[in-house]
Specification:
CATH superfamily of the largest domain in chain C: Cytochrome c oxidase-like, subunit I domain
Strand content of chain C: under 5%
Structural class of chain A: alpha+beta
Radius of gyration of chain A: 27 Å
CATH architecture of the largest domain in chain A: Up-down Bundle
Number of helices of chain C: 16
Number of domains of chain A: 2
Bound molecules: protoporphyrin IX containing FE, copper (II) ion
Order of helices and strands of chain C: HHHHEEHHHHEEHHHHHHHH
Shape of chain A: elongated
Structural class of chain C: mainly alpha
CATH class of the largest domain in chain C: Mainly Alpha
Largest interface: A-C, 52 and 72 residues
Helix content of chain C: 55-70%
CATH class of the largest domain in chain A: Mainly Alpha
Shape of chain C: globular
Order of helices and strands of chain A: HHHHEEEEEEEEHHH
Largest sheet of chain C: 2 strands, antiparallel
Distance between the termini of chain A: 74 Å
Radius of gyration of chain C: 25 Å
Strand order of the largest sheet of chain C: 1-2
Number of strands of chain A: 8
Oligomer: heterotrimer
Strand order of the largest sheet of chain A: 3-2-7-8
Chains: A alpha+beta, B alpha+beta, C mainly alpha
Largest sheet of chain A: 4 strands, antiparallel
Helix content of chain A: 40-55%
CATH topology of the largest domain in chain C: Cytochrome C Oxidase, Chain A
Chain lengths: 288, 359, 612
C-alpha cells in the first residue's frame, strides 16, 4: 500500500531534542568534544598518580613539611615558605586568564587580538616552566634530592642537636640548636659526604637516647619529580601547541576555516585543564 | 542469592578475623622466596623475633633476623610445618623477593606473601596426618604403590602428606615450592619441639656473625645468677663450720692485666647482692694464675687481680672491713697446666667465706 | 494480514534523507584516496575495521598456537617436544633425548598468550573491528568524527604488535610474569629473565596499545554523540552501538589509570624509584628500595583490569543482541532494560576491581564492599541473559551460523556467569583463587563467549565487509566443534580447580595433591588441539570467502532494519552516495503489524502505534 509519497512527513515529530541525531549535543563541535574526552581520560591518569601519592604518603610514618621543603627563593634566599611556588602558580593562572581573552578574540574573529593574547599566554607558560626548572635545579643541585634519595626528614620527637650543621661537635659555650617534634630538617652534604647530625631526644618514650638524622621517605622525592614532571611535560607540550597555533593564527590560516578559531578554543580547553591539574598538584605537594 | 551473599560475608569475616590479643595461638612464620619456603617457629618464648631484610645473608642469616633482639634467640627454622591438631594457628606470611602465596590446599588456606608487608592467616587443623591416611585406606584412588618404580615403597595412602604450595606466580620455579605439613597429636608435637634447636644458639652464637659475640645473653645471666645464689645460699645454710671457698665464675681480665672485662660485672653484682643479704659475712678474695711466664710476675698479677675485684666491691658499697684479698700466683693449680683447658681453669678468682667468724 | 510493507528505499532516502552537503563542500576532501591511502593508510572506517580484524586474527592464531605448545607440556609432560625445537631453539631443553619446554619459556608463553588474547585479539580485534565498522554505518554517518585519528589508532595498535612480536625473539625471552605483570617480579630483572628487556618491550608495546585504544575510544564516543543522522535519537540506536559506546567510555576512563601504573613501574625499573618496591632481597642482594607497595600496583592494574573484561564482553553482547534479534525475526526483548543493564554493568565494573585481590594481603574488611558490588553485577547480567532468552522464545528462528554462535554465546555467558558468582563470594574464593577454577571461569565467560560474539559478528557482517557470504557448511562445522570442544576443554578445568590445583604450574609432579589429574590434562590438551584445528578451518573459510564466497545480490540479505544494509553492496568512502537516510523508528521493528520487518528509515505509518 504505502509508497514513499503516501507517507506523511509530519507524523514523525522531530522533538528538536539535542539527543535526537543530526544535531550536536552540547552544541559543541566534535573537535571540542574530543578534547573534552581526552582531558577526561588524562584526568584519570593524574588521578592514578595522585591516588598513588595518597597511598604511599599514608603508609609512610612521616612526611616532610612543605613549608620547610619549599622555602627557597632565587638569589640564595631561604626562609620564604611557599613564596616561590606562589609566583609560579600565579604565572600559570594569569596565563589561563590571557588564554580566555585569546579565545574571546577568536570568537570575534580578531586575528591581532588572538595573536597578542596567545603570546602573553605562551610567556606565562614559559615563565612557569622556567620557574619549575629552577625549582628542580635547586632541589637536585643544592639540596641533593633525587628520585631515590630524600634528604628531607622529619623529627618525631623534640630534641637537641649535639653537632653543628657540618657534623662537628659544638664548640664549647656555643648554643645548641633545638627542635620540636614534627619539624622537618634537611640533611646537607659537607665535602661530598652526607652529614646526619647527631641529636639527643628530649621528649617522649625515647627521652635521653642519642640518634642520628635519618633520610626522609623515599617516596617523597620520587613522587614529587614524577608528578610535577608529568605535569611540567603537559605544560611544555601545551606551550609547543600554543606556539604552533599562534603562528597559524598569525599567518591567517584560521580566517578561511569554516569553524574559524576553533583550534584556539581547543588548546584553550587543554590549557585550563593543565591549570586545573596544577591546582591539585599544588594542593597535595605544597599545602597538605 | 541475598542469603548466599550474607552467609558468604559472615564466613569470610570469621575466617579472616585476626586472633585476639590474649587468645592462645601458635604463631609461626612462613617466608617465601625463589623458590622455597622457610618456616620459623617462635621457640619457648612464643614470640617471633624482629627481622630486617638488610641483615639477610645467604646461608648465615637467611631470614634477616636481628640477633640483638632476644626474642630471636630461641626461634628455630623447621624443614616441615609441624602442628598439633585442634590448636589455633596464626601464620605470619612474608616474602623476601617477589610475591608468593602461602597455599595449603587441604586446609583452604591461601594468602599472598608480599615483600615489605606481612600478612597473616588463622586456621585450626582438625585432622592429623595419621587419621587422614587411615581415612584414605579404603579409598580406591589411594591404593597402589606410591612409587611405581619401587616395589618396596609404601602404599599411596600410607605415603599421603598434607602439602604447602605457592599460588602466586613468582618466576620459573613457581611450581616447585613444596613443603610437607604434618598434623600430629599434642604430645607428638611437644616431643618434636623438644628436638628442635634454636637457630641462633646452634648456628650463630659466638661466631663472627654474632653481634653479641662474647657478651652474655639475658638468659645466660639469669642462669649464672641462679647458680651463684644456689651455691652461696648452700654454703651459708650448711651446718659445716669450716671456711668455704667458692669460685667466682665468669670473671675475666684483659690478657696480662688486672682490668676487668665488661662481662664480669654480672657475677660481681651477684656477689654484692649476696653480701648485702648476708650482712655479717666477711670474705677473702683469692687470685690464681696458670704457670705460663715468670712466677714472680704471676704472683703480682694474681694479687692485683684480686684487689681489683676488692675495689670493685668497695665501689659498690661493700664495707672494706668485710673484705680482704690475696694472691697465690701459680702455686695452687686446680688442674694440670699442660693443656690449654687446664690452664684456663687455673686462671681464676675465688672467694673464701669465713664462716666461723660469722657464727 | 501478512501484508508486505512496500516502499522504495532509494526514493525514501533521497527524498526524506538528510542532506549533509556531502558533495558540496570541502568535507569531501578527506574521502578522496589513492591506492596506498586506500588500503594501507586508509582513513575509511570500513577499511580500518578490516585492518583491525585481520591483524586481530593473525594475533589470535599466534596466541592460540602458544597455548597449544604449553598445553602439550601440561598434557604430555613425558613426551618429547624435540619436533618443535627448530622453531623454539634453546627453549626446548633436551635431556636423555627427551625435549621439554624450559620452565621460563612455559611462563613466557602463558604470559604472552594472556596479553595477546586479552589486548590484541579481544580488545583491538573485537571492539576495534566492529566499533569501526558499525558505528558510522548504523548511525548513518559518513565516517568517524576524525578519520585521521582513527587511522592513527590502527597504526598505534600495529606498532604495539610489532614491538610485542619483536620481544618474542630476544635472547632473554619475552616477559614471563603473567599478563597482570605484578611487581616486584615484573620490576626486577634479577628475579626472572623475562623481566629484563622482555618486560621493557612489553611495557612499551602496551603503552602504544593504550594510545591506540584512547584514540579509538575518543573517536567512537564523539561519533556516537555528534554524528548520528537525523532522527537517530539515543533511544533508537541499535544495542550494538550502545555497547560500543559504553565500551569506549570504559576504555577512556580505565586505560589511563593503567598507564599511570605503567609509568610508575617504568620508573621503578629504570630510575630506582620505590613506588611498588619495598624491602626486597633478591639474588643475594638487598635492594635499597623501601616504602613502596606492590599492592598499589594491583589496585591500579585491576582498576583497568576489571573494566577491561567488560570492554571485551560488552561489544560481544551488543553484536549478539543484534544478531539474535535479526535472526529470530523478533524485536529484542526489553530494549530499554538492555540499555540500562549495559550502563549499570559499565558503572559497576569500576567499583568491583578488588575482587581480584581478596587474597592479596589487603585488609579483609575492604573485601566486604567488593563482594557486595561484585555480586550486584550479576543482576544486570542476569537481566541481559533473561532478555536474550525471551527474545529467542517463540521466534521465527533461522539457525544459520551467526545465530548459532549468538546462541552459543548466551550459553557460555550463563555458564561463566555462574562460576563468577562462586568466585565473587570471597569466602569461596579463598579456595578457588589462582586455581584452574578461575582459569575455567574467565575463559568461558570472557574468552570463549567473546569469541562467539565475534564469530557471530563476523559471519553476520561478512557480506557487509566483502560483498560475499561465508560458507555455511564450514561455518556450522566450525560452530559445533568449537562449542563442544570449548566445553570439553574448560568443563574439566572446573573440577581440577575445585580440587585445588593451582594455575600457572609448569608441572604437577612434585605435589601429591595436584598430581592426580594427568588423564584429564591429556584430555584437555587433545580437545584444545582439535578446537585449534577447527579455528584454522574458520580462517580458511574467511579468506576463501573473501574472493570466492557466494556473492551478495541484494543489499539487505538478512532482512535487517538497521542502516548499514541501506548502503550499496560495496559502499565507497562516505558510505551513502547521496543523502544520508533519516531515521524514523528504533532498530527492532521485526514482525510488527504483520510486517516481517520495517527498516529504521521508514517513517511511521498512518495509524501505526508504538513508534519508538
Ligand atoms: C557474574 C559476574 C562475574 C563475577 C561475579 C565474577 C567474579 C570474578 C572473580 C571474583 C574473579 C577473581 C577470581 C580469583 O582470581 O580468585 C574473577 C576473575 C576473572 N573474571 Fe570474572 N566475574 C564475573 C563475570 C566475568 C565476566 C563477564 C568476565 C569477562 C568478560 C570476567 C572475566 C574474568 C577474568 C579475565 C578473570 C581472571 C583474571 C586473572 O586473574 O587473570 N568475569 N571473576
Ligand atoms: Cu610462586
Ligand atoms: Cu573482575
Amino acid at each position: 500500500m504505502a509508497t514513499d509519497t503516501a507517507l506523511d512527513h509530519d507524523i514523525e515529530v522531530q522533538s528538536g531534542d539535542a539527543w535526537d541525531g543530526g544535531k550536536k549535543p552540547f552544541k559543541a563541535s566534535y573537535g571540542k568534544l574530543m578534547m573534552w574526552y581526552f582531558l577526561l581520560s588524562d584526568a584519570f591518569t593524574f588521578s592514578g598518580f595522585l591516588i598513588a601519592y595518597g597511598a604511599l604518603r599514608i603508609s609512610s610514618p612521616t612526611w616532610p613539611v612543605p613549608d620547610f621543603v619549599f622555602q627557597t627563593f632565587p638569589g640564595g634566599i631561604t626562609g620564604w615558605p611557599l613564596i616561590f611556588v606562589t609566583v609560579m602558580s600565579f604565572l600559570l593562572i594569569v596565563s589561563s586568564v590571557t588564554m580566555v581573552r585569546a579565545v574571546q578574540e577568536g570568537a570575534r574573529e580578531n586575528r591581532k587580538g588572538v595573536v597578542f593574547w596567545m603570546i602573553l599566554t605562551i610567556i606565562g607558560g614559559l615563565g612557569f616552566l622556567g620557574c619549575q626548572a629552577w625549582e628542580w635545579t635547586n632541589l637536585i643541585g643544592h639540596e641533593h634530592m633525587s628520585v631515590t634519595t630524600n634528604p628531607f626528614g622529619t623529627h618525631v620527637e623534640s630534641g637537641v642537636y649535639l653537632e653543628d650543621a657540618n657534623g662537628d661537635a659544638y664548640a664549647a659555650g656555643a648554643t645548641k640548636e633545638t627542635f620540636e617534634a614534627g619539624e622537618s630538617y634537611l640533611i646537607h652534604k659537607h665535602n661530598g659526604d652526607w652529614v646526619q647530625r647527631e641529636y639527643q631526644v628530649t621528649s617522649g618514650t625515647d627521652e635521653g637516647t642519642r640518634m642520628n638524622q635519618e633520610f626522609g621517605p623515599k617516596a617523597f622525592g620520587a613522587l614529587f619529580f614524577f608528578i610535577t614532571g608529568f605535569h611540567g611535560f603537559h605544560v611544555f607540550s601545551g606551550v609547543v601547541f600554543l606556539i604552533i597555533i599562534m603562528l597559524n593564527a598569525a599567518s591567517g590560516v584560521y580566517v578561511e576555516r569554516k569553524n574559524g578559531y576553533e583550534m584556539v578554543e581547543k588548546i584553550g580547553l587543554y590549557w585550563h585543564f593543565v591549570d586545573l591539574v596544577w591546582v591539585f598538584v599544588f594542593l597535595v605537594f605544597y599545602l597538605l | 542469592m541475598t542469603f548466599l551473599v550474607v552467609k558468604g560475608l559472615v564466613v569470610w569475616n570469621e575466617v579472616m578475623a585476626d586472633v585476639g590479643i590474649d587468645e592462645e595461638v601458635i604463631e609461626i612464620e612462613a617466608t617465601g622466596y625463589q623458590f622455597a619456603w622457610d618456616i620459623r617457629y617462635p621457640g619457648p618464648d612464643n614470640r617471633l623475633g624482629e627481622k630486617d631484610y638488610t641483615l639477610i645473608q645467604l646461608g648465615i642469616n637467611p631470614l634477616g633476623q636481628n640477633w640483638e633482639d632476644p626474642q630471636n634467640h630461641d626461634d628455630f627454622i623447621a624443614d616441615q610445618i609441624y602442628l598439633p591438631v585442634g590448636r589455633k594457628v596464626r601464620v605470619r606470611i612474608t616474602a623476601k623477593d617477589v610475591l608468593h602465596n602461602f597455599y595449603l590446599p587441604h586446609f583452604r588456606v591461601k594468602m599472598d606473601a608480599v615483600p615489605g608487608l606481612p600478612s597473616y592467616f588463622v586456621f585450626t587443623p582438625t585432622v592429623t596426618t595419621e587419621d587422614f591416611r587411615a581415612r584414605l585406606r579404603d579409598n580406591a584412588n589411594w591404593q597402589g604403590l606410591s612409587d611405581p618404580e619401587d616395589p618396596e615403597s609404601l602404599q599411596k595412602w600410607e605415603a599421603f602428606d598434607y602439602e604447602l604450595a605457592c599460588a602466586e606466580l613468582c618466576g620459573k620455579g613457581h611450581y616447585s615450592m613444596r613443603k610437607i605439613v604434618k598434623i600430629v597429636s599434642e604430645d607428638e608435637y611437644n616431643a618434636w619441639l623438644e628436638q628442635q634447636n634454636s637457630y641462633y644458639m646452634s648456628q650463630i652464637r659466638n661466631t663472627d656473625n654474632d653481634p653479641l659475640k662474647g657478651q652474655f645473653l639475658e638468659s645466660d645471666i639469669k642462669v649464672n645468677e641462679k647458680k651463684f645464689f644456689e651455691e652461696f645460699d648452700n654454703a651459708m645454710s650448711s651446718a659445716d663450720t669450716d671456711d668455704i671457698v667458692l669460685p667466682l665464675r665468669n670473671i675475666n681480665f684483659e690478657t696480662g692485666s688486672a682490668n676487668l672485662t665488661n662481662n664480669s660485672q654480672y657475677e660481681l653484682n651477684n656477689l654484692v647482692t649476696a653480701l648485702t643479704k648476708y650482712k655479717d659475712v666477711s670474705i677473702e678474695l683469692n687470685g690464681h694464675t696458670d704457670n705460663v711466664g715468670d712466677s714472680g710476675v704471676n704472683q703480682q698479677l694474681s694479687e692485683s687481680r684480686a684487689s681489683t675485684v676488692l675495689n670493685y666491691l668497695i665501689d659498690r658499697g661493700v664495707s672494706s672491713s668485710r673484705l680482704s684479698s690475696r694472691g697465690y700466683g701459680d702455686r695452687m693449680p686446680l688442674e694440670t697446666n699442660d693443656t690449654e683447658e687446664g690452664r684456663m681453669k687455673n686462671k681464676r678468682i675465688e672467694f673464701k667465706i669465713f664462716k666461723k667468724q660469722t657464727i | 494480514m501478512a501484508e508486505v510493507l512496500e516502499y522504495n528505499e532509494d526514493v525514501l532516502i533521497k527524498e526524506q534523507g538528510y542532506d549533509d552537503h556531502f558533495h558540496d563542500h570541502h568535507h569531501g576532501d578527506k574521502f578522496r584516496s589513492g591506492f596506498i591511502s586506500h588500503y594501507i593508510f586508509s582513513m575509511d572506517h570500513k577499511i580500518i575495521a578490516k585492518q583491525f580484524l585481520i591483524t586481530g586474527m593473525i594475533w589470535a592464531i599466534i596466541g592460540a598456537a602458544m597455548s597449544i605448545v604449553f598445553r602439550m607440556q601440561l598434557g604430555f609432560p613425558e613426551d618429547s617436544m624435540t619436533w618443535i625445537k627448530p622453531l623454539l631453539g634453546k627453549w626446548i631443553v633436551v635431556e636423555n633425548g627427551i625435549g621439554t619446554l624450559a620452565p621460563e619459556f612455559y611462563y613466557a608463553l602463558v604470559t604472552m598468550h594472556g596479553t595477546i588474547l586479552v589486548f590484541f585479539v579481544l580488545t583491538a580485534g573485537l571492539s576495534g573491528t566492529f566499533s569501526n565498522l558499525l558505528i558510522p554505518l548504523q548511525l548513518g554517518a559518513r565516517d568517524m568524527a576524525s578519520p585521521f585519528m582513527n587511522m592513527l589508532s590502527y597504526w598505534f595498535f600495529f606498532m604495539a604488535g610489532i614491538v610485542m612480536f619483536y620481544s618474542l625473539f630476544i635472547s632473554t625471552g619475552p616477559f614471563a610474569g603473567g599478563w597482570t605483570a605484578y611487581p616486584p617480579l615484573s620490576a626486577l630483572p634479577q628475579a626472572s629473565q623475562g623481566s629484563g628487556a622482555g618486560m621493557t618491550l612489553w611495557l612499551v608495546s602496551l603503552t602504544l596499545f593504550v594510545v591506540s585504544v584512547l584514540l579509538g575510544g575518543i573517536n567512537y564516543i564523539t561519533t556516537v554523540l555528534n554524528l548520528r543522522t537525523k532522527g537517530m535519537s539515543l533511544w533508537r540506536m541499535p544495542l550494538t552501538i550502545w555497547a560500543f559506546f559504553v565500551t569506549a567510555i570504559l576504555g577512556l576512563l580505565s586505560f589511563p589509570v593503567l598507564v599511570s601504573g605503567f609509568l610508575m613501574l617504568m620508573c621503578d625499573r629504570g630510575l630506582g624509584t620505590s613506588f611498588f618496591l619495598s624491602e626486597i632481597f633478591v639474588n643475594g642482594e638487598a635492594l635499597p628500595n623501601v616504602g613502596g607497595s606492590p599492592i598499589l600496583y594491583q589496585h591500579l592494574f585491576w582498576f583497568l583490569g576489571h573494566p577491561e573484561v567488560y570492554i571485551i564482553i560488552l561489544p560481544a553482547m551488543g553484536l549478539v543482541s543484534e544478531v539474535l534479534s535479526v535472526h529470530a525475526r523478533k524485536p529484542i526483548f526489553g530494549y530499554k532494560a538492555m540499555v540500562y543493564s549495559i550502563l549499570a554493568i559499565g558503572f559497576l565494573s569500576f567499583i568491583v576491581w578488588a575482587h581480584h585481590m581478596f587474597m592479596s594481603g589487603v585488609n579483609p574488611m575492604i573485601s566486604n564492599f567488593f563482594v557486595v558490588f561484585t555480586l550486584i553485577i550479576a543482576v544486570p547480567s542476569a537481566v541481559k541473559v533473561f532478555n536474550w532468552i525471551t527474545t529467542l522464545y517463540g521466534g521465527n528462528i533461522r539457525l544459520n551460523t551467526p545465530m548459532l554462535f549468538a546462541i552459543g554465546f548466551v550459553s557460555m555467558f550463563i555458564s561463566g556467569g555462574l562460576t563468577g558468582i562462586f568466585l565473587g563470594n570471597s569466602a569461596i574464593d579463598i579456595q578457588m583463587h589462582d586455581t584452574y577454577f578461575v582459569v575455567a571461569h574467565f575463559h568461558i565467560v570472557m574468552g570463549v563467549a567473546a569469541f562467539f560474539g565475534m564469530f557471530a559478528g563476523i559471519y553476520h557482517w561478512f557480506p557487509k565487509m566483502y560483498g560475499r557470504f561465508m560458507n555455511e557448511t564450514l561455518g556450522k562445522i566450525h560452530f559445533w566443534f568449537t562449542i563442544v570442544g570449548a566445553y570439553a576443554i574448560f568443563w574439566p578445568m572446573h573440577y581440577i580447580g575445585m580440587a585445588g590445583v593451582p594455575r600457572r604450574y609448569y608441572s604437577f609432579d612434585s605435589f601429591d595433591a595436584f598430581n592426580d589429574f594427568a588423564l584429564m590434562n591429556k584430555f584437555i590438551t587433545i580437545a584444545a588441539i582439535i578446537v585449534f584445528a577447527v579455528q584454522i578451518l574458520f580462517v580458511i573459510n574467511f579468506f576463501y570467502s573473501i574472493w570466492y564466497g557466494k556473492k551478495m545480490k541484494t543489499k539487505n540479505p538478512w532482512g535487517a532494519t538497521t542502516l548499514e544494509w541501506t548502503t550499496d553492496i560495496k559502499p565507497g568512502h562516505g558510505n551513502w552516495e547521496g543523502n544520508l537516510p533519516t531515521v524514523h523508528r528504533w532498530a527492532y521493528d521485526y514482525g510488527k503489524d504483520g510486517h516481517d520487518f520495517i527498516p529504521q528509515y521508514v517513517p511511521a505509518q498512518e495509524g501505526e502505534k508504538d513508534v519508538h
